[in-house]
Amino acid sequence: MKTLSALSIIAAMCLTLSVSQTAQAVQGINVVPVPAQSDVLVSVPFNQDSEGDFTVASVTAGGVTVTGALVAGDYNNGLFYARFTTGAAAGLWTTISANTASELTLVNADVKALVAPGDELTIYPHQTIGTVMQDRLRNISFTAGTQVLLYDNAAAAQNKSTTTTVTFITFPVTTWSGGNGVNTILPPESMFVVRNPGGTTLNFVTYGDVPTHPVSHLIPASATKDILIGTGYPVPTTVGKTNFEGVANRQILTFDNTDGNSNKSSTGTVTYITFPVQVWSGLSGDQTALPPAEGFIFRQNGGAGGVITATSPY
Fold first, then answer.
1. What are the pLDDT digits (tens) for 23-70?
2. Is the separation of the CB atoms in 149 and 97 below 8 Å?
3. CATH number 3.40.50.1820 is the correct assignment for the domain at 52-125
4. pLDDT band for position 13 (50/70/90)?
């Protein structure tokens, strides 16, 4: 039997996905090379197929009621989230922990606090190790010993270390071990590490529905912390389009995923200054490139918080 090369499989996926279009979604694909014996810092800029669109009828103590019928218990496993598409929470998301026939219980109280009746939301399945590292991508995106390392974005700290490690093992069983295994969630717009301990280059492949909704981040006021994120878009964008400016000393730290190193430190820093002019300073300023499906750090050095909505690059 002739074995298809990694590149031929990726090319076939590109052809299939690039022409796959419905009234609901356009699909796309990104590929990030993972050099041997190295880490890459990445994110997943695609959605899975949505479960449907809903309108908030009321805000409750634990979540929201919505117009349109829900099937009670469908979202009780923590593997689904609500993305708000209108209102003060537009672009933000929160995991759903449970549901009745009319109510969604929402995990993130700070997001829920911004929601009002009439706001619209879409329910999506979370991306997980199992949905991203599918078996057909074995020996392309991952092989025995490949690791996915996750950060805790809720922690109020800078220079964070990873907190969860999930490893692909082939003995005594073939599985992803650690965290919640194949159900380990890769949160929207969140950065994580793919570690390739092997001797050949892998290709981290992501694909799915291209986002058409707003992408926002909820920044806490006066915090000194790093938020490790991706752009949320599957095409190149720039620092200027993140809209993180407005507060002195905010920084964006970028990485070089081609350098062949593990345990990477950032290689570039762009800082927002307000004197003598208001501008992003360093690298290429507001035109500094942020590649698709790759991660970066937003560093909050105190000051005002709030909802920051990126400018879509398309």
1. 468 999 999 999 999 999 999 999 999 999 999 999 999 999 999 899
2. no
3. no
4. low
